[in-house]
Each structure stands twice: as structure tokens, then as C-alpha cells.
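Dear colleagues,

As part of the handover before I leave the project, I'm documenting each prediction I ran so the next person doesn't have to rerun anything. This entry is a single chain, and its sequence is reproduced below.
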Amino acid sequence: MGERPIPDLYQVLQQCREQGVGHVVLDGTLVGCDRVAGTNDNGNDSWYSGKAKRFIGNVCSS
């Protein structure tokens, strides 16, 4: 049996929209971004991830 590919974030959100889902919890999802700025107290860019080696944001729910 062939495995189905894992959908990316855009595909999941599109499916949710088509199904009329009003809210989606993205806890722990890393979201790529290219239009952010800001540094933290030690001068590092707040949005750059050394682990991912790109600018990202981490979505957390509480």
C-alpha cells in the first residue's frame, strides 16, 4: 500500500476552510516568515532559528 503524503500547513488550512472549521490549534507548529524584525536583550534576532537556520515563529497555545 502506498502511503499518503503528509499535507503542509497551507493544505491543512485550506481543508479546514472548505469544511467550515472555525478554529485550528497549531500548538508547536513552526511557521516560516520573511517580514519580521526585532532583537532580544542580547542582540540576537528574535525571529531567527539557529536550529531551523531560517526565520520562523513558534505557535503556542495555552
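Residues 6 and 12 are 10 Å apart (CA to CA). The beta strands are 30-32, 48-49, 54-58.

All the best with the project,
I.
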